[in-house]
Every structure is written in C-alpha cells, then in structure tokens.
TrEMBL record:
Residues 14-41, 199-219, 327-356 are annotated as: Disordered. GO terms for molecular function: GTPase activator activity. It comes from Xyrichtys novacula (Pearly razorfish). InterPro entries: CRAL-TRIO_dom, CRAL-TRIO_dom_sf, Rho_GTPase_activation_prot, RhoGAP_dom. Residues 206-219 have a biased composition (Pro residues). It comes from the Eukaryota. One of its GO terms (biological process) is negative regulation of endocytic recycling. It holds the Pfam family CRAL_TRIO_2. This is Rho GTPase-activating protein 8-like isoform X11. Residues 227-356 form the Rho-GAP domain.
Amino acid sequence: MTSTSDLERLAEIELKKEEEEDKEDQTDAPSLPPRSTITTDPAHPYYDVARHGIIQVCGDDNYGRKLIVFSSCCLPPSHQLNHRRLLEYLKFTLDQYVEMDYILVYFHYGLRSSNKPSLKWLREAYNEFDRKYKKNLKTLYVVHPTNFIRIVWNIFKPLISHKFGKKLSYVNYLAELREHLNFEQLIIPSDVVRHDEKLRAAQKGGPPPSVKTPPPRPPLPTQQFGVSLQYIREKNRDAVIPPVVSQTVSYLKEKGLRTEGIFRRSARVQIIKDVQKLYNLGKPVNFDQFSDVHVPAVILKTFLRELPEPLLTYRVYNQVQELLSEYRGSGQRGEEEEEDRTEGNGEGSKAEGIRR
C-alpha cells in the first residue's frame, strides 16, 4: 500500500513532468482574465488577492445555480501571494452564496511548482469548509485534469465522504462544459483556451476543428421553453398567461409559500429536463409526483431565463432606468428639504428662546 508521503512525492514528480511538457507554452507571469472582471478597488477587504482574478463569480448555470470559477493560471508565484489570505478570500466569496445551490469550476491548467499552494494548505482548506459549504455545492468541475490531480485525489480520499466524492466531475475539454453550463457566462483565461485548442489538435492529429453549429429546428406548436411570449400566445388560443407560469405559480401559491428560500434552491437536473420536455410536447405535468416543491420553482425560473426577450423588454429598459433615477432623485430632494425644514425649525426655536 502506497503511503501518503510516497503519494505526495509522486504528485510533485507528476507536476514537474507536466511543467516540462508545457514549457514552451508557459510564461513567468500569471495569466489574467479580462480586466473588466477583476476587482480594482483598493478598498476591497481582499484586494491583495482579488486583483489577480483567481476567483470569479460568473452568473448562473442553466438551472439557476451560481457559478464560481477558480483559475490556477492566475495564481502568482507563491512568494507573491499569502495563501492564508487566498483561503480567507475563497471563504469570503463562497459565504455570499452557500445558502443557495452553487457550482465550482476549477481550471487546472497553469498550476506549477512555483505557484501551487502546499498539500497542507489543501488539507486545511478542506477541513475549514464545513457542512454548509459542502451541502449546497452541486458539482465540482475539474477542467483539464492530469495525473497530478488524480494522485492528489487519492491522497485526500480518506478524508472525503462518498457523497462529496460523487460531486466531482472531470472535464477533458472546454466543449464538454457547454452540455452543463451557460458557457457564454464563464470567464476563461486566454491561457486555458489556448491549452484546450492544443489538446484538441493533438487528439485529432491536426489543427483544432472549427465548431459547427447545427441549423436551428423550428419550434414545436406546443413549445413552451425558449420561444417568445407572442409565439406561446398564438399557439395557446390567445392565453394571456403562459401555461408554465400559471401552473407553477398556482402550485407554489398552494403548497410553497411556507418554504423558506424557495427560489434559492435547485432541483435534480434530470427531473427539470423531463418536465421541460413534457411541457414542450404539450403533455400534462403533475408536480405532486415529484414530492419536491422546488421543482415548479426551478421550472418557473428556467422558463423566464430562456425567454428570447426578458419580461422587462429591452425596449422599455432605458425608460424604467430613467424612472428609477427620477424616483431616487426626488427621494433625495425630499430628504434634503426635510433636513432644511428641521434645521430651520431648530434655528427658529433658538431665536424664540433668545427673545424670551
């Protein structure tokens, strides 16, 4: 049986091998995500870590779960980063979302001997993430895994519960993420994209193939998801409220009003896909059979998210923004007038006191 110390040495050897193989692609400087996504405010409590763009929050996945990305290639050399602060910043970020379901995407490419946290740090990190962090983590995607990752996983296997282990998903190519996530929302460093292209080229024995998008198929007459409200109305005898909205809202009013955080939690992905299929085929849906009030809540969120144009249409968005600005402006003016009146009354009282 291989000891932990032997596995640690083996992990170091594998990482060195990977560095040698990727030597021509590597640079001394860490990769950076788009500047617009990096925290540049020096007042940020973790500005010293956040400015590197190692951890990014990228919106939601296809089922409304928060997406959080960790990019190894953005890690600076270890002597330039306090890894204790990195752990605190990771917890600081997760604390904002752990009460709801979330997804972690780990881009492994770019981890090197010069910038990697120690295995001791990894143990501390795992131990510090208590049940609340692990419970609502739905999937941990490890992108571009290597032998180093698999060895490290074996080192930690005795510490990791079987339930948590099932949440790990290896992703060999970026294209595989499209099946599970809203790919356009992901913040992917350019180094990771180039590495992915290199891997695909090696797999095919030639240059990376261009991705061909299949021609769109016309929607079914009973289609509910991914079509316009106008289309749904025309196909449903001029119904003012789409069937998905009326049925989910009715069910939630009857059985979900006492459920705390009803729109924060997700449901099983396969069930959501099955319910969507039933709606799109025009078949009846009985939410009681799922024994989970979060199913209709997620279906409602998914329906709204997949509308080609949001309920608050692009055409009126600017008008609403102007109204909000006017409302805030009038509120501020009202507060200033109230302060003036208060100050005036105070000065009047003082003058009255002097006269007396």
